Amino acid sequence: MAIRVSPIKAGRAAIARAARLLRAGRLVAFPTETVYGLGADATSDRGVAAIYAAKRRPRHNPLIIHVPDLRAARRLVQFDDRALRLARRFWPGPLTLVLRRRPGTRLSRLIGPALPTVAVRVPDNPTALALLRATRRPLAAPSANRSGAVSPTRAVHVRGSLGGRVAMVLDGGPSRIGVESTVLDLSGPTARLLRPGGASLERLRAIVPQIETAPANSKHLASPGLLPSHYAPRLPVRPDAAAPRPGEAYLAFGPTPAAPAGVTLNLSPSADLAEAAANLFAMLQALDRPEFTAIAVAPIPAEGLGLAINDRLRRAAAAR
Question: What percent of the chain lies above the pLDDT cut of 70?
Fold first, then answer.
């Protein structure tokens, strides 16, 4: 029987131990600015296969590779002018770029079966960057939860979801942004937004004006976060709800009338989208309780980080 490991506060000794575990093909959960990631050595078939097994993740769903800087990314993928401008503006930060894989890289083919591309990013979190530098390997790191479930933004969430399947959980405190990275496909002549996230479309278009929001038709997923049902708590989710129905918990946004404690949580009383994104997954988990029939969620503006929030809620509400 697997023993659930307790989170360990991130520090120099803990990071050095985590790096040794990763180089040995083990799994380590670690904080990023977006959500907690389930890390494995991206050059190790054993390590990458362990991610899919621990998360019970479909093998056709590719993984994002995390590296410490642009130089490391350029050893793995081919950058054009658009990609360089975006990387220099947004890295470290919540932007993942899908680019053509360089021939001869040592990356495991399991990270994106049948794909000529790799999704890569540089996280903006001191623990994540220290771990990448200590490991001296690129890390495959999807969210540290079972596949399709609510993403973890705190170390305790990882322990509850995957605690018995990881060798170590580094605790770096709550995730600052709270939703996953934006994924932008630059592998072809047309830039395509595959997944809205922590870097807003408006900011991306200030650097690369022509970005399509409709994903390309392909039988192969080029990015994680594209499955119809994803980010889902156990309870059904009902977005765009002006008020809860009898028996429902309510996730509010903006100023609302007083409501019973424990039934209503507010993503942001001041209607701040950054605060709402940071609270989204933790509050979904807090309301995912058997005494409720569903989780109703207030309407969220479809702008800035609201695009990412609405994307996660739409997938959480999809048929499972």
Answer: 90
